[in-house]
Amino acid sequence: MCRPLPLLAALISLAAAPAHAQPAPPGVPAAAWLVYDRAAGQVLASANAGQRWEPASLTKLMTAYLVFEAVRDGRLGWQQVVAAPATVRRVGTEESRMYLQPGNRLSVRRLIEGLLIISANDAAVTLATAVDGGEAAFVARMNAAAARLGMTGTHFNNPSGIPGPTHYTTAEDLLRLTLAFDRDFPDVYAITRAPQFRYRAFHGQASNPLLAQDAAVDGFKTGHTEAAGYNIVISARQRRIGAAGQPRDLVAVLLGTPSKGDRARGAELLLDYAGSAFHLAEVFAAGQEIQRLRVPGSAEGEVGLGVEATQRMALAAGSAATLRVTLKDDADIFAPLPQGAVLGEVEAVQGEQVLARAPLITLQEATPAAWPLRFYDWVAVRLARWIG
């Protein structure tokens, strides 16, 4: 039977601050939204995050992801020159574009810049053709990638974001795609933080207005159609609230805001909320001793217990977590024990809520004692089991 044991007094200080209720999120002018803390790996707040919505030009994030994959896999090169296909003629005058004409030749790198900085639909069409020879095959690849990334609420019909009844995504799926970029292609942010784009006579400002308003913002993508409203995925790095605030790495997704101004204000509201209503806390620290435990039959007598991996969490401002340890039955513990042996579990808790848990492991090896002491401990352990 496992039994909870008290923690060392030094660790009880982790919970010295009184718990505070999480402040209510701000009124965000969006049909669906979420805000995420990268360091904690947590969605801090959300509304309708699983609701299907037209992505508009946020579609181009998947288009870009597949281009980055093609470059990584050697199917394309950044400096490879490709020709704009005849299908760029279909890009309407009301659509975002970099004014490509059929046969225009330019590098994949320039096309991806036009795609992400000014949201050029003609760049999307050209890149889809460069990757797969045509849009139909590329769209199939988009949907296969969405399934692979766990974007179960997403379906694409085109690489640009032209609306349609079966072209949709969700806020939580867009977060999954953003985190896939973080993991696989973080150099994308060197592109999405650019404030402007030029191609021949064309000069356009970045479609992301927060780049000019918030120095912490390094992308990611905007989108708009009449049906979708104004959408945005925002990435912010080392963002602080006030000079003494914690630096935070955040992602915010907003879908269906009614105007450009509402989109920008809503994104700032969510970033501010994440920075002011929560703080990052290291609930588990790798290698830090949480408790000492006597190990019968060991030369050391006792060993320190801790966790293998550090884990940080975003907690409500002013609150803290307590640690609760549960150990294996003493009768199951006897030297020798290797470093890293699992002897129980530690939980980070607030009240009755378990926030996180991790295996509790030996931080040092427990080596066998000399035979008289080892034999004495062996007898004592079995007597205790028999009596108990």
Give your account of this protein's structure.
The chain is α+β, with helices and mostly antiparallel strands. It folds into two domains: 3-17 and 283-387, Sandwich (Peptidoglycan synthesis regulatory factor (PBP3), Domain 2); 32-257, DD-peptidase/beta-lactamase superfamily (Beta-lactamase), CATH 3.40.710. Helix content is 29%, strand content 27%. The chain is built from ten helices and 17 strands. The strands form five sheets. A six-stranded antiparallel sheet has the order 1-15-16-17-13-12, with no helix packed on it. Helix 2 (59-72) runs parallel beside helix 4 (121-132), helix 3 packs across helix 4 and helix 4 (121-132) packs across helix 5 (135-148). The longest helix has 18 residues, at 260-277.
Helices, strands, pairings?
Elements: E1 3-5, H1 9-12, E2 32-37, E3 42-47, H2 59-72, E4 81-83, E5 105-107, H3 108-117, H4 121-132, H5 135-148, H6 171-184, H7 189-192, E6 196-199, E7 202-205, H8 210-213, E8 217-225, E9 229-239, E10 248-257, H9 260-277, E11 278-284, E12 291-294, E13 302-306, E14 311-316, E15 322-327, E16 342-350, E17 353-362, H10 371-387
Antiparallel strand pairs: 1-15, 2-3, 2-10, 4-5, 6-7, 8-9, 9-10, 11-14, 12-13, 13-17, 15-16, 16-17
